Amino acid sequence: MTAGLVSVVLWQHSYAMDEQRVSIRHGGHTLNGVLTTPRDGRERHGLVVYVHGDGPVDATHDDGYKPLWEANAQAGYASLSWDKPGVAGAPGNWLDQTMDDRADETAAAVAWARARPDIDGDRIGLWGASQAGWVMPKVAARTHVSFVIAVSPAINWLRQGRYNLLAELRADGASASRTSAAVAKSDTTRQLLERHATYEEYVKAMSSDLDGMTADRWSFVSRNYTADATRDLAALRGVPVLLVLAGHDLNVDTADTERTYREVLGAGGALTAKRYPDATHSLLKRSIEQSDLKVTLTALFSPRSLFADGFVDGQRQFLTDLGRTSGATP
Question: In percent, how much of the chain has pLDDT > 70?
C-alpha cells in the first residue's frame, strides 16, 4: 500500500519538461533561478518570465508553479523564475525592494535570457500574479516584452488594501462595530504612512495590536504604498495581454482591474480577459482553498487539479496561439 502511494505521488510530480538551476547576476549579487525547457527537440524556445506576488516566494513557489510551467512547455515555451532576495538562501531581503527595484531585477533576468542561444529573444514575455501587477508594466517600459499574462493583478495599493479589508470582514460575517473599528485602524495606518511615520510611531499608535506588522514589513509598505499601475499600463499598449480574473477574489477588486486595463489598453484587440468563476485570488479552486487539508492532499496527490477549471488550459492556449501568429509553431 505504502509503495503504491509513493508511486502515485512520484508520478503526479513528474512533469513533462527539463529543469535546471541557473544563476543570474544583477546589481552586484546573484539571483538563484530555475529554468525549465520543453522536451520537443527544438534548439530555441520562447520564454515566460515569472514575476512573483507578495511574500517570501521561492523560485518554484513551493512547486506550485510547476503545473503552469508544464503547460508552457506543451505550448513550446521555456519558463524562468528565481528566489526572492532572502528566500531559500538567496542574498538580500525582498522587503527592502520597491516595485521599481523589482522591475529592474526582472529586466536584468530578461536580458540574461535574451543572451542565451536556447532562448528566442523575440518571444520573451512575462507572467505575474497580484503584486506583480505593479511590476510588469514597469518592466515593459524598460525592455521589449512579447506578451504578458497578468493573474489577479492589483491597480492601486491603497484601494486594494481597503477592498481586501472589507471583503474579508464580509466573508467573516463581521459585526458593524468590528467593521467600524477595523476601518478606523486602517485609516490611522494610512495617516501614519502619509506623514512618513517610523515603525516605533506605528507601534505606539496601534497599542501593540500589530497584526503581524514587523519593522521590515513597515519599511516595505512605506516604500510602496503609493503604487498605482494606471499610468504604467500604457507601456503595454499593443502587447498581447491575457488578463486572468477570479470569481472569488478577496484580495483584488477585479471589476476595478478589468475596467482600468480596458480603459488604458483600449480596444485594439491586444487584451484578452478571462474570468474563472470558481477561482480564488490564487486561481485555486475555491472548494479546495477553503480547506487546508484539501490543499495539502491535492498538492500531494494531484497538483494539476489545484487550479480552477480551464485556467491552465487557457494559459497554454494563449501561448500556443502566440506561437502560431509569430510563425513559431510548437
Answer: 93
Report the pLDDT averaged over residues 27-49.
95
Q: Which residues of 116-126 are buried (b: 16+ CB within 10 A; e: fewer)?
A: beebbbebbbb
Provide the grid cell at 217: 514589513
Residue 214's φ and ψ, nearest 5 degrees, are -95, 175
- What's the grid cell of residue 170? 464580509
Tally of residues, the chain: 330
pTM above 0.85, yes or no: yes
* Cα dihedral 15, 271, 157, 100 sign: positive
What are the angstrom distances between the C-alpha of 313 and each of 75, 130, 307, 329? 10, 20, 10, 17
Cell of 195: 506623514
251 and 303 co-located in one domain: yes
User: Closest Cα partner for 130 from 246, 271, 295?
Assistant: 246
CA 247 to CA 239: how far, in whole Å? 25
**Are residue 143 and residue 241 in the same domain, yes or no?**
yes
Q: Which three cell numbers stand for residue 122?
A: 523575440
Tell me whether strands 77-82 and 45-51 are parallel, antiparallel or unpaired: parallel
128: helix, strand or coil? strand
Residue 319 lies in domain? 2-156+227-326
Widest CA span in the chain: 63
Please, what is the end-to-end C-alpha distance for the chain in angstroms? 40
Q: What is the pLDDT of residue 2?
A: 37
Total domains in the chain come to 2
pLDDT in tens, 96-116: 999 999 999 999 999 999 999
Cβ atoms < 10 Å from Cβ of 88 = 13
Q: How far apart, in Å, are the Cα atoms of 212 and each of 190, 215, 216, 217, 286?
A: 17, 10, 11, 9, 25
